[in-house]
Amino acid sequence: MMPENPDLTVNNSAATSQQSSAGTGQSNGRIPNSNNDRESEVSWFEWVLFGASSEQRTIRKNASNLVKQLNQFADRLTNAKSDADAAIRNAIGRFRDENYKAMLKEMPVDRLKDVATSIRVGILKQHGYRYIVDLVGVSSARLQQLSGIGPATAPQIVRAVQQICESLRRQSFVIPLPDDVEISHSAILRAAYTRIRCRGISRDQIEALRAAASFLRGSINDVKAAGPIWARLIQRTATLPKVAAAFERLNVMVGHDEYRIVLNEAAQSVQRLEPPLDWDALRNEYRDRFAEYSAVLEAGLEGRHVDDATSAPAQQGRHGSVPAQIAERVEAVVLSLDSLDVDLRGYQEFGAKYLVHQKRTVLGDEMGLGKTIQALAAMTHLHNVEDANWFMVVCPASIIGNWSREIEKRSKFSARILHGAQRQDQLHRWMTSGGVAVTSFETLRAMIDQINMPIHLLIADEAHYLKNRATKRNANIRQLAQLSDRIALMTGTALENHPKEFAELVRICDHQLGSNLANAVTNSLGLPGMARRFETLVAPAYLRRNQTDVLRELPECIEIEEWITLSDPELRHYANQVHSRNAMAMRQAANGGAGGNAKLERLSELVDEYRDAGRKLVIFSFFRNTLDAIGDLLGAHHRIDGSVPAIRRSAIIDQFTNAKGFAAMVCQIEAGGVGINLQSASVVVLFEPQYKPTTEWQAIKRAHRMGQTNRVIVHRFLARETIDESLRQLVAKKAAIFDDYARNSAVKDASPAAVDTSETQITQQLVEMELRRIGAA
Fold first, then answer.
1. Bridge-partner residues for 718, per DSSP?
2. 518: β partners
3. What confidence tier does 316 reach under pLDDT thresholds 50, 70, 90?
4. Range list of H helices, 107-185
5. Cβ atoms < 10 Å from Cβ of 331
6. Of 337, 338, 341, whose CA–CA distance to 411 is shortest?
7. Do the Cβ atoms of 699 and 684 come closer than 8 Å?
8. Are 269 and 262 in contact, with CB atoms under 8 Å apart?
9. Residue 507 and residue 514: Cα distance in Å, rounded?
């Protein structure tokens, strides 16, 4: 369908007519050979004044119009992004203005007392001033004419009205959740719809339009050059055939299929930018692509309100804990992201710049903030600006498929999967032709010695697996780091046990900095001001942002502790496991069995409730036999555990995501809690507590992450008078130790469950606590 704008409509009828006549050799503008015919075709007046007959002038006019259309389409596509950005800012501005006026009309004059308690609003009401809007623009002199309002009170009222108006104008636009979007948001959504489609505009298409216009403009100039006025006056006989031939060529060009094809393709590209007129279609689009809409709307907000006080928190969140002097240098990087098929959030843009500028870093953003996209943005920039083309990603095998999909979906790079039977062939292709090599920590062992070429950017995802310097995977990454211009270790849980482990990650990037950090932790942990010193030391190599700091549209996450009382047979079975001093058996016994299953009974109630509501839920447990029991309860369900190959996990997630209405996914927490996206789920069940809160946080963030459109409800199942309770208590006791680090410092993920404590020591503590509980110690 062609666009409604007449300036951007292809004149197919004229082109077809001209092409037909050109094909038969009987162009309307063709000049016969005989002098008599030439005299009849071109009068002396036309020849001197125009150098062409009326038919020939029509050909030239059609050619000029075609050039105009080609350039108009090229301009429209070239400016589409900036025009859409401006449209978003203007639409948000109009929305804010309309809201401001509506709030003024509805705000009673009593609100003046919130600003100045001495104002007697009763007198204002007596004189007909019942709403704040009634007082807007009323001068102090006018107010003093009213009975009961004196020269001291009137200026107070004027200032109070101004203060309220300024406060209302400063109120920030909040990106609406899909369930909250209203018809009043339609202009904003329509502008955002267009902006999202701008990513599909091809630079090659724009260049083809410009080239076609330029070539055709050259042919128009050839016509002019064939018959200059001096030749028309002095050498008419010789000039007429040249002009006729030039017009003949121009006529053929105007009717050529290539121009029609280029114009039609351009018209279709422009049409794709047009949002649907139907409100329901636009609203459904907003729900389906909420993360993308949030990104472009956030950019519009930042562009419009950079001087607003309301933008300060977002800017602070964008930079994480990076000091201002470093942030300023990072912000000076101008990213070149041509060919990256995604709109970056503001904090993601800063993250990509940070990876590029700081070169050897730990990207520790909280789960769900798009670390993969930031890495791909850095790769794209390096490719466009520095001709870099050899990138490598090392990650757990379970998320290789996720990396492969993101590379293919979001970038123009070739994904070379160095895993499985084809890994040697793919390694050769990567070393020869470049692209993004993706391999697992384990597979890297078999090929580490074959990789001896420069790597432009090395990514280690889920880098907390590298915390132990004594492991082979740590040594392998250190070996690759020596070959790499840049390295980014990515993890949402940089600290799981102790700051020394975080220092080891930093040491991979910068040996001296990591050593300084380790010494500082060893000598000063817990001392006043240590958290701030830690933050300052690590700032050149560590960037961390939290969801609450940067995702203003993220729905709330409600956590509910489900304290469950086991049946007497279950408790007796549990006591037997305590006597065995087997912590894993104790944890499994707390999950049910031997005469009943109280946790499953509670889960059954929740499943019935959420099935009726049509909501999707994901249930996490450490134990496969627990997943088996949950699966039997659910019936039809989806499942990911450690036995599911990485290549199949994406397909399972797609099936779960695409299911209509209620659906359930059961996941082994160590397998399904890392590196996968489950935004379609709005209910999370943690069937038992874990040793590390970071394990639970990761699981929750699979659902409560960017793109989530619903409030997320987390149910924590805890069996009373069991190891569940003891583990919960142990976590709470450790929480205060890293409070300063977790709340104020750059180190956001200190696990309170395992500070200076190995898993073996934790297990011993738990067993001893449970033995004392049942009186068997």
1. 563
2. none
3. low
4. 121-126, 132-135, 140-144, 153-170
5. 16
6. 341
7. yes
8. no
9. 4
pLDDT at 50 over 60: no
Pair 76, 205: CB distance under 8 Å: no
Locate 247 and state its tokens. 């017009």
Neighbour count for residue 24 (Cβ, 10 Å)? 7
Q: What is the pTM of this model?
A: 0.65
Determine what percent of the chain is predicted with pLDDT higher than 70.
Answer: 81
- pLDDT digits 0-9 by tens, 56-87: 778 888 888 888 989 999 999 999 999 999 99
> For residues 103 and 92, is the Cβ–Cβ distance under 8 A?
no
CA dist., res. 393 & res. 372, Å (int): 10
Residue 753 reports pLDDT greater than 60: no
- Reported as type and span, the H/E element at residue 513 is helix 511-524
How far apart are alpha carbons 547 and 355 in whole angstroms?
19
- Ramachandran assignment for 392, one of left (phi > 0), alpha (psi -120 to 50 degrees), beta (any other): beta
- Phi–psi pair at 278, nearest 5 degrees: -75, 125
93-124 pLDDT per residue, tens: 888 888 888 888 888 988 888 888 888 888 89
- Report the alpha-carbon distance of residue 669 to residue 717 in Å, rounded: 14
Q: Average of pLDDT values for 431-452?
A: 94
550: number of CA atoms within 13 Å, CB side?
29
CA-to-CA dists, residue 739 to 542, 589, 746, angstroms? 19, 33, 12
Structural contact between residues 703 and 684, judged by C-beta atoms closer than 8 angstroms: yes
CB 481 within 8 A of CB 451: no
Q: What angle do CA 458, 462, 468 make, to 5 degrees?
A: 90
Task: Tell me the two tokens of residue 96.
Answer: 């804010």
What's the token pair of residue 505? 């990650």
Tokens standing for residue 625 = 């036999």
Does residue 746 carry a pLDDT above 70? no
Task: Count Cβ neighbours within 10 Å for each residue of 421-432 and write b for 16 or more, e otherwise.
Answer: eebeebbebbee
Provide mean pLDDT across the span 454-473: 92
Give yes or no for a contact between 354 and 422, defined as CB atoms under 8 angstroms apart: no
Q: Which comes out higher in pLDDT, residue 86 or 421?
A: 86
- Return the amino acid letter for 552: R
H or E element at residue 717: strand 712-719
Pairs from 388-391 (Cβ < 8 Å, separation ≥ 24): 388/456, 388/457, 388/485, 389/434, 389/435, 389/456, 390/430, 390/431, 390/434, 390/435, 390/437, 390/453, 390/454, 390/455, 390/456, 391/434, 391/435, 391/436, 391/437, 391/455, 391/456, 391/457, 391/458, 391/459
Token pair, residue 670, equals: 């160590």
CA-nearest of 170, 204, 196, 411 to 305 is 170
- Which helix (DSSP H) or strand (DSSP E) does residue 701 occupy? helix 693-701
- Provide the β-strand partners of residue 714: 559, 684
- The whole-angstrom separation of Cα 699 and Cα 367 is 9
Mean pLDDT of the chain: 81
